[in-house]
Amino acid sequence: MIIQMHKPKPRIDELDFLKFVFITLMIAFHLVYIGDAYPVAKRLVYTFHMPGFLLVSGYLFNVNKSWESFWKTMLWIFVPYTIMESGYTMMASLLPIREHIDRLTVGVLVDHIFLHPMGPYWYLHTLMICGICYYIAFKKPEGRFSSVLKQEKPLLPIKMLSLENQVLLGRFTLLALFLLLLSYGCGLLSIANAAYFLVGAIVRQAVGNFRLAFPARWWTLGLLLVWCIDPSHYDRASFAGACLVFLVIGSLLWIYQLGIPQSLRKLFLFIGRNTLPLLLFSPIFTILAKYYQALLLRAEPTGIFFMVVSVILAIAGSYGITWLMDISGISKLFFGKKGLI
């Protein structure tokens, strides 16, 4: 098989729909009561929601940027990440939450920012590390080396593998080595999480079309239901977990094709295109949910109503905070943009 190098593709609606589903599930199962009340469902969701998010992120990540533009992008992920991770860590030292910190020091704070993030902010930590490795591995050579590379003859017969494809394979090998080193050697990454980002990058560069890699067929939903019968498949770091992620993505793409009402479609895609505020601010509202939890559980004891209300409040509240930051000018200092949404 000959691998073809593809230029970056524009974002497509199906990917934003996937991100909407994954971010909504993230918020729902960060509610402590829901996770405790439905542990099997939590294990299932945790198997695919953030791996799927990382896979889509790897696919969408743009490495065709100048150094200046790329580091600017990284900076304006790092700034809000650092602020919110610091706030979450300090809050964990004050509140009796599951991730409680007994003694907060500067060393503990630095450790959580740079090495072991808490809460949902680990995703941004992983995204920055994987993104930097991806960019370095795929940075196109410039100047004299670039012209020499173009003149080189392939190491393998052209019918087997072209020079361009050899370079592509070499870059993926380098990226994989970077991620392995940072995972096993330094402990900065989960190897499973890094692998899903890598798969997304491979789909982008080698396949080019997300739909070709994850066909939207009705049978994927049937296979998914059968696959979910066995809870031993609920492990993102296993082959069975990877198959579950594949089936979930294919099933969701098929569901999207069925025809969602236009008003809901617009809402879902808006949320999918604007997930950063939810990643940053939703923990505020999932923690506050504990204060009205008992009231809603008395009205509806299964917790489903509590979950729906809490997710809606978390989404609306996160966008409300972002809107206030936009109109007050804080977004320029926090996100590097006058308006994030």
UniProtKB/TrEMBL annotation:
Sequence ranges assigned to domain Acyltransferase in this UniProt record: 13-323
Alphabetically ordered keywords of this record: Membrane, Transmembrane, Transmembrane helix
Transmembrane helix keyword on record: yes
GO MF assignments: acyltransferase activity, transferring groups other than amino-acyl groups
TM ranges: 20-38, 44-63, 75-97, 121-138, 168-192, 212-230, 237-256, 276-292, 304-325
Keyword Transmembrane helix (UniProt): yes
PANTHER family in the cross-refs: MEMBRANE-BOUND ACYLTRANSFERASE YKRP-RELATED
Name of the protein described by the UniProt record: Fucose 4-O-acetylase
Higher taxonomy: Bacteria, Pseudomonadati, Bacteroidota, Bacteroidia, Bacteroidales
